[in-house]
Amino acid sequence: MPGEVFNPNPVIFSTSKGSGRQSDLLAQSLWIDDILRSEDDAEDWEPIDQDEIFDLIRSIYDPEHPNTLEELRVVSAPQITVGANHVKVEFTPTVPHCGMSTLIGLCIRVRLLRSLPDRFKVDIFVKPGSHQSENAVNKQLNDKERVAAALENPVLLDTVEQCLSNARGNMI
Amino acid sequence: MESTERLVQTWMATGRDEEINEVISDISNDRLSLISVVKALGEYLTSEDSTLLQKGVEFLALVVGKIPEEKWNRQSVRVLTTFFCGKLDDTVTIKPALSGLSTLATLSSITPSEVTTIVEALIQHVKMKSIVQDVRFKVFSVIDSFMAFHRDVLKSMGKKFLDGYISLAEGEKDPRNLIVAFAIARVILIEFDIHERVESMFNILFCYFPITFRPPPNDRYGISTDDLRKALRNCLNATPAFGPLAIPVFLEKISAGSRATKKDALQTLGTCLPVYGSALARVSARKLWNALKLEIFQPVDQETEEEALKATQILVKTIYADEEAAVEFNEDIQGLARNVCEECLQILKEPEKSQAKPATKILGAFMLTTPSVAKYTISQTIPHLVQLFHNPDEASTRTPTLFLLSELIIAARHSATKSSSSGIDPPLSPFKDDVLGVLTTGLKLSGSRLAALSGLTAMVSTPHLFSDEELGFIVHHVNEILEDDEEGFFDESDTTILGLLTTISEIAPRHVSEQVLPSLFSLLTDSPPTREDVAGRQKHWRVLSTLSKLCIQAELFENLVIRLTTKLDIICFPSPQRLVIVSADPEPSAAYVHVILKTLAQALEIKSKKRHPDIPKYLDHLVPHLFNIFVALAFRSDKQPVGASEERLIQVAGQIINLVVQSTPLQRQQSYSISLSKALLNGDVTDIAQGFQKIDKASRLSIFTGSSPSAQRNLVALLSSAVIALRPEVRLPIEDIIGFLDMLLEWALGQADNDLQRLSVFHILSSILNRRADELSSFISSKLNRYWWDEIASQDVPLSRRRLAIISWIWITKALLVRKHAQAIAFAERLYGAFGDETIGWEAAKAVGAIPSADSILTKANHAEVKVLYVQRYVGAVLPRIIALSKDSSDSTRQMASIVALTSLIKSIPRAAYGHEMPVLIPLLLRGLEFPDQEIRGNIIDTFLAAAEGESPDHSLVSEHSVTLVNSMLKNCTVTETSLTRVRISALRYLAVLPKIIRYDILHPYKASVLRELAGVLDDPKRSVRKEAVDARTNWFKYKGS
What we know:
Number of helices of chain B: 52
Number of helices of chain A: 7
Strand content of chain B: under 5%
Largest sheet of chain B: none
Low-confidence stretches of chain A: 22-27, 35-39
Number of strands of chain A: 3
Structural class of chain A: alpha+beta
Oligomer: heterodimer
Strand content of chain A: 5-15%
Number of strands of chain B: 0
Shape of chain B: globular
Radius of gyration of chain B: 40 Å
Order of helices and strands of chain A: HHHEEHEHHH
Mean pLDDT of chain A: 79
Radius of gyration of chain A: 18 Å
């Protein structure tokens, strides 16, 4: 990991266990063990929602710490909005001068690029007011050419892969 | 004499073992003396020609190596010792000479003077650097033998031996020799006077630390890295004299090494410190702590962190162990523990930061060192955190503070349980009131509830910490949050809350049953929540599931049974006013009864796993009550809307009855079986059904009679669940047992109305047959022949009846198979005959797989006759036949059915049973993947998944089929091709595994197309499928050549 550490001792938040979905609650049957039987019902369509997108990015590692983005509250479910073919992800750097913000954003972008159907347009922003060079970061993250160029850089790609190495398994 | 010479000459020419053996047998039988052998060798042993000389010495060494112990005398030992020692300086003869010496060294007749001679000769003549490994090994083994048998001689040689040995051992590199050398070194370090040679010994040992040796693949000698590591470690911690020299080495290796080095260094440090002593530990404490601290606060991985914590513990223990007695009197502790505590407390001023966690771990580790350090740590940290919690400025950090506090309490509990035998108060006692105050406050805040609960659980389970009243106080507080929290109903913390209450209920059940249970029971209404009331139903489910986990302890369970059975009566037999509402929509009531029964069944299941002794008594309370309710419902089925016709209710009730009867002792089962058979044969249930509902004594349940109502017939399931749990010694008092079994079969095929009734009857049949197979041989043979041809093979029988007969066949075969009855395989083999039959071929094929599958009827818990390895026996007989049938393409119907049989068989047996056949199976399974039947495809993919577990890219069985597999999986994971979610998930899982088990150069041509296809699957309608697709796609993205 190159250079200085921007935030040597960040605040760790406890993570919540799996996200209870409102839609699941409403579809309850009268019988207690009916849930299993209805699962294979090919009829109903479960749309991609903000919890599902959060599940995809919550376990990405922070490039600086052995903690996940969820533990550092860099990302959270309410900061994600999902439209018909549009996803907007907002994230909060731990400190305003965090030089890793672009890298974190890039990790989120790569993860979603690989895990969402290509009909979705993904926009990634830092939370307004949470970073000193907010515009520069936002511009960089949402510029197709620049993202593509960044991913041509083998060292950078390797760092991204490392942050993503955990991005599976411990999802609920 | 002459013959000896001839033998010698022959050997010189051939080098065979026969000649040696002949010489040995001559010596053993006293026909020849050792001297004469030497004489016969004379010309060789003095030869100028080095080849002849070498051969001569070698012959002698070989003979020496085989002479029986009792033929040796001092004289010959001495002569040979001198002779072999004399040959050490010659590179030609050193090898045989050493092997001769290594034999001599083990002899009991060797005297100290020869030992000295040999050792001196070794030191003087042997140049270790110029000889090969196995010769060096001989040197070490000679010294090793002396260490074992003549240690005092070596000791008396003093420095001469030490210096000599050091020069011999220096620079050794072969692991086989090192293992011996380390063993010798340990003895030297412990027993010899080494104070003048500490540094040299240190040099020849610490140069190997840390061990980086890795055994080559296919290592023949079986020396692992770990063996060497342990052997070396035993040398390093053999003497305190190494201490001052060793500490800097450890420090360097810890800070500069790789992960493996770090771990080794930390572990070795841990074993060495106690030997090196407290004085040294105290002097180097600061330096060591600085190195260890780094590994704890910035760990490279979890393992290293744990090792560093352990090493810290040992360091603290070493420092403070011997002053323990003195410190008991004054609370104050000086030195390292104090400094570290202060350092950690400084960090703990910001409990929400990431460094606080490792700091807490260190403090927790301290509590497990010595009692005084533990006491000191607790007295410093607990008040600090308590104060922090109460500080209004720090309100935002209350949750993390509580979290750390409960971590510390857990550590304190460990330290208390460790020392509880001595009967002293747990170290936490002086602070328990403060801590309890903090925790109960934390309990009220939703954010910190989880942490508070785990802290409370740890405190409650600390022995001797709380009085009965204090436990009551805790229960009171917990109960308050249960009552307050109407909406969320202790959301995520429910398992933790349950954990706490269960822990308390084991110590003081009274508090839980008096305070918690009433309020929980009061949440359960007498009438079910309406169809629309989702939230109400959720609440009921949560309360009941809580109860099922909480009421395990005998007193609480009794309470649960009483309350819930009463509730059952009220719901099943509603008052006339309610009856109208229930009749309009009976389903909510039935579902409510179902979940209540389920609660009882779950609690019983936990109890039965823990083998609680109070289960049998419910044969007289709970079981008759259930029978009473269901019999009453069946008799009045025309008037009662919630009916015995609901199969799900009967199944759960059956489960409860089964669990109770299982754990009933033999004698009680005997008497119970009489009542059971009355109900089975005559429908007389007066003995087994007792409860609140009035049942006319004269009325008889009609199950097997011609036109009985379905509601009454269903009750056969309840009777069956009791019958299947009877012990083999208990026999249902039925006179004509064969007639009874035949009646059951005929009834199941011809009259029963549903699968529940049929299966119940098959279960009864199967468990009776299983227990009494020996006396039922005529029944068995009539089934094997007549029944097969009349009911299954015959085309004249209606299809539905033939299908049912196949199911009965499965159960008959199962009963015989699990007890390894001789006829079991014959029954299974009958099924092959039906494979060619287009109408029932597949049913018969699936039955082949169903027979060995695990079930809940014929189990040890149900006291069935179960022999070990019956599955293996079945597979051994059936699998080869099925494989042969699957390969035979003469009849395509039969071949298809065989492949179906194959997949269903593999599905139900453990992998070890068919693993060796995998190469043959794979092509057959691939054919099955083409079948339109999705269930079968799913089973095949699951088989591939199970097989993938033991595979690696280097030897993968499937790599030659990779194209077919990839294409087939891609087909099976798209929603348009495969409608079953289960199959799509399996296909995606297998796609995710493929990159791990097939070499990159084989699979990489498909990477692009797999990624493209999977992009489409990311849009699957099912969330669970999308998740698997993401994982599979991630694996393929990461799939790169090395």
